[in-house]
What we know:
The complex is a heterodimer.
Chain A: H1 7-22, H2 25-33, H3 41-49, H4 68-80, H5 87-101, H6 104-116, E1 121-124, E2 140-142, E3 145-154, E4 161-168, E5 171-178, E6 184-189, E7 198-207, E8 209-211, H7 217-253, E9 255-256, E10 259-260, H8 265-293, H9 299-324, H10 326-329, H11 336-349, H12 353-367
Parallel strand pairs in A: 1-4
Antiparallel strand pairs in A: 2-3, 3-7, 4-5, 5-8, 6-7, 9-10
Helix pairs in contact in A: 1-4, 4-7, 5-6, 5-7, 7-8, 7-9, 7-11, 8-9, 9-11, 9-12
Chain B: H1 7-23, H2 40-54, H3 72-82, H4 93-106, H5 109-121, E1 126-129, E2 145-149, E3 152-160, E4 170-176, E5 187-193, E6 199-204, E7 213-224, E8 228-229, H6 235-249, H7 258-267, E9 269-270, E10 273-274, H8 279-307, H9 319-336, H10 349-364, H11 371-382
Parallel strand pairs in B: 1-4
Antiparallel strand pairs in B: 2-3, 3-7, 4-5, 5-8, 6-7, 9-10
Amino acid sequence: MNLDFSDDQKFLQSEAKKFLEKEESVKKSRKVLESEESFDNDLWKKIIKLGWTGIRIPEEYEGLGLGHLELCVIAEELGRHLAPVPFSSSVYLFTEAIIKYASEELKKEILPKLVTGEVVGTIAVTEDFLAPTNNNIKTEVSNELISGTKIAVPDCEAATHSIIVCKSSKGLDLRLVDLSSKEVSINQVENIDGSRGHYSIEMKQAQSSLIGDEGNGWILYESIINQAAVLFSFEQIGGSQAALDMAVNYANERYAFGKPIGSYQGIKHKLADMYVALTLAKSNSYYAAWALSSESSDLPVAAATARVSATKAYELCSKENIQTHGGNGFTWEYDCHLFYKRSKLLSLNIGSLANWKEKLISNLERSNLN
Amino acid sequence: MDFKDTPEQAKFRKTCREWLEKNAKLKTGVEKNEFANIDFLQVAKDWQKKKYDAGWAMLHWPKEFGGIGASAIERIIWAEEESKFNVPKGIFEIGLGMAGPVMMEYATDEQKARYLPAMAEGKEIWCQLFSEPSAGSDVAGLRSKAVKDGDNWIINGQKVWTSGAHFSDYGILVVRHDPNLEKHKGMTFFFLDMKSPGIEVKPIKQITGGSSFNEVYFTDVVIPDSQRLGEVGDGWKVAITTLMNERLAVGDANGADVEDAFRWAKKQDDSGEPLINNKSVRSSIADWYCEANGLKNTKLRTMSALSRGETPGPEASITKIVSANKLQNIGAFGMDSLDMAGMLKTDDPEIQSFQNAWLGAPGLRIAGGTDEILKNIIAERVLGLPQDARADKGMPYKDIPSGNS
């Protein structure tokens, strides 16, 4: 029985923590928020240098060839420190999709460049102000040429490539597009969490290459986000812990009516509720990490369970952290809003809470809980 | 990460399993109350005796008191396996879980030899006499009196919420020996024979209609000083040992869980459509699934630490808060799904399980530390927040306002 990370993995995590503290990642996140940029290029370069973008890339493609568990501990730290980098888009989604579904030729071309940072990826699916489904994708491919518009695509400022979910004669496909081609135009869209960017991608007869089987795109997309959900959960529990720590510190330091506000049960019980939600999310994320790393058939259920719990925990911890800080929590100056905004960005980036609850229940129906 | 037992653990699990298969019946899912209409106390005693003879009753206790000196992880493995079988529960937990550890730590060797094996065997049942009408969450506010009289103590006062007092042979008791001292300092701890003259036990009727708790009245009850546990004035320190054991013992709430809600929602039709097709039902079941599995996986994390011989983190402190509230919500869901008929008593075991959950859960949210007290404990001991201001701090007990005298 061992539902815990190994000593090596814990060491990797503590090194990641030290690095992100030294880099003042949270300050950098605020700097990005207050600038025109949508990521911190300097921090991103250092992360690439540490090899984190190649953690899961096999050694034959010049990566580190490590497992998903190593990625989980890194994700938790990126979440705790609000790292303003396109890691989730490029590593959890794009790189994993290439490793799992791209042709050998594409892998040889792309994977080594993901390690060096020459290629940075994202994934584009949404087209309108509603949840994308296998019925509402209009972007179309014919003779390898894609046309259509995607909105709410994360992290395009850094990205050189995107996987596009699009319609073909066989159904839905996943296709790789080079974002620098002249048939593609990218526009930054103002968003709620300016420490990470959102973009629209407009494609007019843009060249593309198929990833995975034709007509199978939606199933592949679902499988990619099931994997990514586990890694997102770790970012979310890292962020939840940081928000809870912030609230606990403030509750110890701030006095009202002659004593620390943390001695009042109104605050205590709020913070205990945050701890309870975080503990449930953490335990479910650990189980999902096991399911992911051992390629268990339980992954769809385990990932959705982790994702729902982690989304709920981060939303609770980040909003009640503001509440604990009172008026200060509502100011731009305090960091509370950085966590509040990031919690929403992470909770929507691969689909909303309602969506993941639905995935959980339909997977349970399929696996026949009873 | 892996979920495998070590070879030794697997061997131990197999031994547990084989003995249980020989001596008990596996649970089937929806349990009918097999123990209704029979002498439950006798059935429970017989089962306890059977376990004791085979070494399973208190397996982590030393051999001399009837255990097999099992490790923490082996104890969990036994509990996991036993929980898969339909065996009588609810009679011995308090004595074995709370009186046992206190006797083990504070009783003399002769007393241990006399009482512990009989307790483990189920021959003698123990209860815990702490709470009082004016001392619930603030147990240290208790006022039952002990007055020294030669080699004896004379006890007067009243205890309440005493589970099983009506069938207990012995009890552990904390009382006030000096009201002039600060409240935590003026208490002393004893064990006593529940058949002593001057003890009167009155059952309390609960909202479920049943009575598992009692009021216990003491009128000039005599306890020999040799039955004091700990020094005079150490009552609170000794009581805390028991309370910490209680908070571990009162863990997962038994009763209707997410699997039951899910099965019910698939089966139960609401105007021609199964309930599971209803979005709000799906959302609630998803929440309960995350809670139930969050607890299960939290337990696995605790076991992982024990399995490595380490002390587990504080994560298990969330168990009762989460499971008692989940039980209440699932019970309400089952009843609501029947609309007006949800109020009716019936023989249907599934419907009964929802109604029992709904009626029993309020008690679980209070017993062994209310939700609010448990949240205080998480806030103070896990998160490190300061203690709440105490209006009675440093005051002699007799000067503390109590609102009813």
